[in-house]
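User: I'm putting together a teaching handout on how multi-component assemblies are represented. Below are the sequence lines for each component of a complex, exactly as they appear in our records. Could you produce the 3D structure of the whole assembly as structure tokens, so the students can see both representations side by side? Please keep the chain order the same as the input.
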Amino acid sequence: MNKPIYFDYAATTPVDLRVLKAMLPTFSENFGNPSSVHRFGQRAEAALETARETIAATLHCDPDEVIFTSCGSESDNLALRGAAFAQREKTGANQILCSRAEHPAVTKTALQLEKLHGFQVEWLAVDATGMVRPSALEKALCEKTALVSVMYANNEFGTINPIAELAEICRERRVLFHSDAVQAAAYLDVDVTRLGVDLLALGAHKFYGPKGVGALYVRRGTGLIPHLTGGGQEFGLRAGTQNIPLIVGLAEALHLTVTEREARSAHLRPLRDKIIGTVLETIPEAQLSGHLEARLPNHASFIFKNADGNSLLQLLDAAGFACSSGSACKTGNPEPSEAITSLGFCREWALGSLRVTLGASSTAEEVEQFVKKLPELVAKARGLLNFRPGALEE
Amino acid sequence: MTHVVVAMSGGVDSSVAAVLLKEQGYQVSGMMLRLWSEPGKENSNRCCTPDAMSQARRVAARLDIPFYVVDAKEIFKKTVVQSFLDGYAQALTPNPCLVCNRHIRWEFLLNQALALGADFMATGHYVRLKLAEDGTRQLLRAFDPAKDQSYVLSVLRQDQLQKALFPVGDYPKPEIRRIAEAHGLAVAKRPDSQDLCFLAGEDYRHFLQRNAPEILIPGEIVNRAGQVLGRHTGLANYTIGQRKGLGLASAIPLYVLGKTAATNQLIVGGAAELGARELLATGVNWQSGQSPLGLFRAEVKTRYTAQAAGGWVTPLEGSSQAAVVFDSPQRDITPGQAAVFYDGDQVLGGGVIVQFK
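Assistant: Of course. Below is the structure of the complete assembly, with chains in the same order as your input.
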């Protein structure tokens, strides 16, 4: 078999070797605890605060508005839970607004706040491309709304939401606005001044940084109740000794991403368009999921009628292509995801989702091989779904 | 490179099957069926619990082979579970493993494996294969007679055998455990699987009560003379040869001799009345793909755990049925179970028992 081709950069990315190089001295050489008084601690603290400054510079915010966490999901958790409790205490507002297309880090947190803590979750409508329209937000906002959470770009179907407009609406109503930018940060401008968000979640491993580290932007003056309490690190918002190697990796990865963003997008956009164009042209009963234009430059996603996305992924893997799907899980359960369902597809379509996400090492040749092979594999997956017991006996 | 998909269950046998094939130089992939469980009992299903799945996944990772889980919940329910319930509704004692092997493992999963590009599919069944001179493949009993599973694979047709590999059938079970240990597989000490996977470790009667209470119609218990001796709680609650649980006061121990679906009667009698010399089987599968020319001698097994017994087999109805006359009366011949015909170690074929006398 040929070397497998990795088309699942939205799941995770390899660590950029420049990032790895920046991290290495902070494991065993500069190993101190940044909270310590002595020189070891001071050097570690310098590495930590330099990383914070680097991130602040890319986000266009102040360093003390950047909180380090263990991942994008934790950032979402801290944003939702922390802001919901703080807002309720301050104003009595207890409603959380988000869409069903949000990452589970947001929806599950919101649902837990509803179930266990007396908050009320209202679901924002998305259009057929999975986008939250400003009009939908205006309609849903009410006096009880404490917090709105809308992702910058969707992980499953790539649609980019009009964050600046949505944040503007919330600011006028004095409602907190959080955006999960875990997928978006790799390719989109994350200038929080321009976006106007109060909270923004990042995860390093989506842009060639290490796994296990994330950040949350918290606009100055935004009240947050911490959910990890202890030694007062991260301005009292997230206790625990900071993981300096990973934080340094996050900062370096984000810095490189912002520097190289245009070039990376310019490389991937034509490859993505080649995939989208060829798939829709060569495969019958196929649709693009998400928005045609307002989508991440590395993200192509489809749904195929009467095909099981899980089978398709297995066939693709066996043929040497590593992709993903909104219905697949490793345990073989063929339920379509909430996000795909939120687009309004019926079950016979929603089960057959496929996500192809490109990245640094993707080439035109790989894309060519992929689009050449896919029609056959979709046909095979459809055949497998039509299996009837005893059919071979006749 | 020849590509083999191993149907993995997370147990020791299929894990070692993968080990052996890899050592023999095949390109190996693992596949696991996600089968149906009663709602709320997903963690008790014997062979596809989350635990079994993670075991299989770990074995695959250890062997560095791809591993895929294939959803078969709906088809398993429609095919295997439904025929299990239908069988009991018709006063039979169905054997769902036969249906599963025929339609789920060796059709549905084989089809998936072939689509993936496999040349063969392997399982951890204890049986052997032999290539005959004419190119057909013969199914043989396992090297380890205590573990032999040829009975449940008697349903395989020649086209399925052509795609099958059974690497563990050449070894005694202790050797398989030793190989698992030598390879550091955590499954080496997992207990052997027993019972039907979807019964969640419970008595099948509880399953019927929950899933098909309508078939449990109380009726009369009678003796061969038609004399009413008591009441039964539903024919499905009894198995031929059963002695306990009849709730009858009698001078001699009474056994279930048979069931009459038309009158919903359970027939009982003394030990001397047990046993029958003849049976009729339908839906007969001849594994060579060729029907026998006529009457032949064979050893016949009527239950998974029964000893094979000598007799004469007569193909009927264009060989889709077979009548068996045993040399001596056999106990516990049970409609719904398979009658499997052997020539020495070789499985000739088998069918589902519908009558006996």
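A couple of points students might notice: DSSP finds seven helices and 17 strands in chain B. Chain B touches chain A at residues 27, 29, 32, 34, 50, 53, 57, 66, 68-71, 75, 78-79, 103-104, 107-108, 111-112, 115-117, 157, 159 (CB under 8 Å).
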